[in-house]
Amino acid sequence: MAENPKLTVLFEKLRGKTFVLDKPEMSAGRKDAMDICIKDPSLSGHHCDFIRLESGSYLIRDNNSTNGTRVNNVPITEHELKNSDIIQLGGVEILYDCAADGEGPVSGSGFGRTHTINLDSLESNLSTVKELSNYSPFAEVEVKQQARTHKIMLAGLVILALGLIAVVALLIVKIFSIGE
């Protein structure tokens, strides 16, 4: 392998961002301290590691991440990567590119080692990422805040309804007292 493998983000917010795997072990996650830092709430702080094998290829190892790691849409805990594998870290899709010139699925196609995939030109911009039930680590806090807001609104509506009933009752009493 002449050059170091690359990871190219396919996820729309960071589309085209490239990370070069140039160390024996590299960590990926949401935290700034990671070698590969992707600020997306679907990634865990330390989501996974990329480990160089003797062959020069890389092994990806999930670190018990909240939303999991997939390779070619298959959940993994550990997997040896091959050229053109699609890695999913939480909700972020990444292309693994390790082909030397003339190798891999694009050999003889006129493309060089790295090519750009323009996803904007596609008819549909659908992701293969499945719906994540626990997309954000902050979702529980947001749900509690929404529940509290709903309770406050319900209490306000009850008070308003009681006030309306009191006004109607007062009007009825006044109407009957005028007639006497």
Brief write-up:
This protein is α+β, with helices and mostly antiparallel strands and 180 residues long. The chain contains one helix and eleven strands.
Tell me about this structure.
With 180 residues, the protein is α+β, with helices and mostly antiparallel strands. Helices cover 22% and strands 24% of the residues. The strands form two sheets. The chain has a six-stranded antiparallel sheet with strand order 2-1-11-10-7-8, with no helix packed on it. A five-stranded mixed sheet has the order 4-3-5-6-9, with no helix packed on it.
Detail the topology: elements first, then pairings.
Elements: E1 6-9, E2 18-20, E3 25-29, E4 36-37, E5 48-52, E6 58-62, E7 69-71, E8 74-76, E9 78-80, E10 86-89, E11 92-97, H1 139-178
Parallel strand pairs: 3-4
Antiparallel strand pairs: 1-2, 1-11, 3-5, 5-6, 6-9, 7-8, 7-10, 10-11
Q: Taking all residues together, what is the mean pLDDT?
A: 82
C-alpha Rg (nearest Å): 28 Å
Shape: rod-shaped
Series of secondary-structure elements, N-terminal to C-terminal: EEEEEEEEEEEH
Largest beta sheet: what is the strand line-up? 2-1-11-10-7-8
